[in-house]
Specification:
Blueprint (H helix, E strand, L loop, with lengths): L1 H28 L8 E7 L5 E3 L13 E8 L5 E11 L6 E6 L5 E6 L8 E6 L16 E3 L15 E9 L6 E13 L49 H19 L1 H6 L2 H9 L8 H28 L3 E6 L3 E6 L4 E5 L10 E5 L4 E5 L5 E6 L4 E7 L7 E9 L2 E10 L4 E10 L4 E9 L2
Parallel strand pairs: 7-8
Antiparallel strand pairs: 1-10, 2-10, 3-9, 4-7, 4-10, 5-6, 5-9, 11-12, 12-13, 14-15, 15-16, 16-17, 18-19, 19-20, 20-21
């Protein structure tokens, strides 16, 4: 038997060697593909005390009551990796079965009767890349653990939909609560429409004319620059506005002065139609007034039109590895260096056309800066970290009625993360760091 075992091992080794060599040949024949950047984003339920039913049967079928807590995700990205963080207070972990239900109904067991008589799941991160399985861990399971069921089957699943955490306690006496749980998604940060903005910052990554770097100056009822407003930069053309006003006014006056129109020859009717607002009954004066009015209306229109044609405006602001790039209305381009240190990944930018400001997050997550796109000068900057993170993203939300930049940074290989809050004061053109928390 021992000799047979040795022979079996040697055959396995030979097969492995052949397979490995085949893989090397296969890869040598394939063109080298550019590495796609990834983004990590997290969604958490509010902190609370969600009571876990303590060994209670739901009905006569002997099914236990289960605590379910949902998270509704509106962002629709394709998952490349998923982690689940759980915080539970319970005096006997072995009573519990914890599972995650995806929007498509598939259920994945994270933990089942683990931890024996130990207490709690504290900042427990279920992740397929963890070194140890939850089965090997001990309460309170703080850190990263492989779940009972692998989550790799959720790769290529869309993030949008309702995700639900289920907690079952199938024993009595020991009572516990679910405090919160979170989903940590990783997805490819691609730029589908090739407009310089990836899916994390582009509100419509299927249309190159819609992104944070353009002016919303078309009357199309669309939020073209992804700032939550519609057509805010649109201005009615001067010619259209003036002519429309005269047409409406003249039409109204003609209708109200029916007697004058009837008694006046056809040639004079057109003249009177334009000048019915005048009280002077003299035809000569009427004609003179008409000429003066026309001249006064057209002069500023011509000036406005000329100014719009000759003006060079900022059309788009795009990210680069050291700062940002401006595309102007005449087709010219200017590249601006914001950070002297070149990062492996591009910056993240948010353009504010009304303020002529652009917010720039360094590609490694160390700094965030506010620059004026007219002068291309720095107006404010905040330091976020001394470490470099390989995945960084930011969102802008109101916290305590104040506009705040929420920056999330992650170094997946070292399992390090950071969350920073920076107050964005556009009127004062200032950035102010509120907090930086490691492990968030």
């Amino acid at each position: 038997m021992k000799n047979m075992k040795k022979l079996k091992r040697s055959k396995t080794s030979l097969i492995s060697a052949v397979v490995f060599a085949s893989v090397l040949v296969l890869f040598s024949l394939q063109p080298v593909q550019a590495t796609t950047q990834t983004i990590t984003d997290s969604f958490y339920t509010p902190n609370g005390t969600y009571a876990i039913p303590d060994g209670v049967f739901e009905d006569q079928s002997q099914n236990y009551q289960v605590l379910t807590l949902p998270i509704e995700i509106t962002e629709n990205y394709t998952i490349t990796h998923l982690g689940v963080e759980v915080n539970i207070t319970h005096p006997y972990d072995d009573d519990l079965t914890i599972s995650l239900v995806a929007p498509d109904g598939r259920e994945f067991t994270l933990a089942r009767h683990n931890g024996e008589s130990g207490d709690n799941f504290t900042n427990t991160m279920f992740d397929d890349d963890a070194q140890f399985s939850i089965i090997e861990g001990t309460a309170p399971f703080t850190g990263f653990y492989k779940p009972v069921d692998s989550l790799t089957d959720l790769s290529s699943t869309k993030t949008a939909g309702t995700w639900t955490l289920k907690v079952l306690d199938d024993a009595t006496e020991d009572v516990g609560t679910l405090n919160n749980f979170g989903l940590i998604f990783t997805y490819a940060d691609v730029d589908e429409d090739q407009d310089g903005y990836t899916i994390t910052s582009d509100c419509n990554d299927n249309d190159a004319s819609i992104n944070p770097g353009v002016l919303d100056n078309t009357q199309d009822s669309v939020d073209n620059n992804c700032n939550g407003q519609i057509d805010e930069d649109y201005k009615v053309p001067a010619d259209t506005n003036t002519n429309t006003g005269n047409t409406n006014t003249n039409s109204g006056n003609t209708n109200t002065n029916g007697d004058t129109t009837t008694n006046t020859p056809p040639a004079d009717t057109s003249t009177n139609t334009d000048t019915n607002t005048n009280t002077d009954n003299s035809p000569e004066d009427t004609n003179a007034d008409n000429v003066d009015v026309t001249t006064e209306d057209q002069t500023p229109e011509t000036s406005d039109t000329d100014t719009q044609i000759t003006e060079v405006a900022v059309v788009k602001v795009s990210p680069t590895k050291k700062g940002y790039k401006i595309t102007y209305s005449d087709g010219s381009v200017k590249t601006v260096v914001v950070f002297k240190t070149k990062s492996q990944k591009k910056t993240k930018v948010k353009y504010y056309p009304k303020k002529d400001l652009v917010l720039v997050l360094q590609g490694n997550g160390k700094k965030i800066a506010l620059w004026n796109v007219l002068t291309n000068q720095k107006v404010s900057q905040a330091k976020l970290s001394s470490k470099a993170y390989n995945t960084n993203s930011f969102k802008i939300k109101k916290i305590d009625d104040k506009k705040t930049v929420i920056i999330k940074s992650l170094n997946k290989k070292q399992q390090e993360s950071q969350k920073s809050l920076v107050r964005l004061l556009l009127k004062k053109q200032n950035l102010k760091t509120v907090s930086t928390i490691l492990g968030e």
